[in-house]
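thought: fold this chain, then report.
action: predict
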Amino acid sequence: MRYVMMDTNIFIDMIIDRKHNVSGKLVESFIKLLDFDEIKLIVPAIVVHETNKHLEEQLAEVGKKIKTAINSLEDIYGINGYEIDGLEIKEYKSNSRKQLTELYTKYESNKADYLRGIKATIKKIFEHPNSIIVEDTEQLRSLCLQRRIYKRAPFHYEKKESYADGLIVETLVHLLDYITLEESDTITFVTGNTSDFSKRNQKKELHEDICEDLKKTGLDEKVKYITSFGELIGVELKQEVNNANLKEEFEKEMQEQEEMDMEQLYAEVEDLERESVGLTALGSFESEFLESFYESQFVEQLKELFERINNCFSELEDIEYFYTEELQDHVCSVEAEEIAEFIEKWNDLMGDLDETPVFNDISGIREIIDWIEQKANSNDYSDVNTSLPDSIEYGDNITIYGLEKEEYRLTMDELYLSCGNGDIDWLNMAVWCAGEKCATGNIEITYGFVDFDDDGGIGESCDEDISYQTSGIIECIEEIAEDFEKYVNKESGIVDKIKDAFGI
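observation:
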């Protein structure tokens, strides 16, 4: 009997076609292999839990990708007076937007049905008579914890905290505790998570820590390791497919899968070539970009400006409190016989501040209280005082309020990188106010490339680069911060003079 054990990511890829290589028909045929008793599926309980947990959020990603495609159309522009192959750029954008909008509308209106459908499919697989659910046991959890303590794969690198992967490994290693295997039985373990389960530079081979543990339990000769659902069906289960009379049904899908596998192989070779000359592998470019973004001068400048604005809001809270509580209490505590002296001192101070003097009687006290209330209101930013973040994630849309309580919004393009040799991507950003762009900027990503001649020498090449054209963004937000600081300094000076004059 052929036993198959699949990681959570494989089940997700079966249902949500994230890698563009699994058709609905292929999934149906896989279920038929279970129906014909050609395979038995081993499913750790944690995989059932994780798969069901992530289905809805992965379905939501489908909608986000469509929205990203719609928004990206705005970045396409042409040359005035020219056409490309008889098609105006504006016409192309209009038609594409219409089609994508229709697609998004269909997605939104049928989203609930899609979710019910994919949940039904995955339930059918998990509850199939030939699916064996291996429940979490105290022993498995204990072994998983031990594995983490000793930093054995998949806990072999820093900050790896996924107990789910650890439980999957321990289930595989101790499978004989849960099922009985005949001498001829084999186990095929499938995962696309090569960073956790594979050798460091050999993605097609199981990590040596796991191999050692399998040898201890006598399963090292029975376990076959593969890294894609397509390889499982097209190569590993080829005989089972034939036995179930599904050859023709799979033929087309396998051809497409082979093409995808070849593309992946070319990509891996391309990445090795890039790394050999010091370029970043395209497969890891996005993560490398994000790391550099968080450490960039642009982000540091934003955080510094946000801190300055937050400090201004904090000082304005103190100023508003002074007027509403301290000064008002002081004025209200003035005795009748002290009014004339108090108002005289008040008017002297107001003269220095270019403020209107008040009458030297009880009506003057009412005028002073009115003035205090006006000052308190003008320094009350509680309705817009939303603390700006001290850390920034790429793609954050951040609202900033100006001195007049006007709303500014910092927006960034969604992270959608082409990651192609010789390509250039631009990630646009802008500061908006009242529906108009106040400032724009972008991050220009040059991926670089290298060509090798027939002798293996380096031919044409171009270095990679990440360039920030964001001075306009920084200047715009800095102007907001400076306006606040000038105002706060002025108002703080007034408060200090009042405190000195009246000993508050």
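thought: worth noting. Residues 279-504 form one domain.
final: tokens above.
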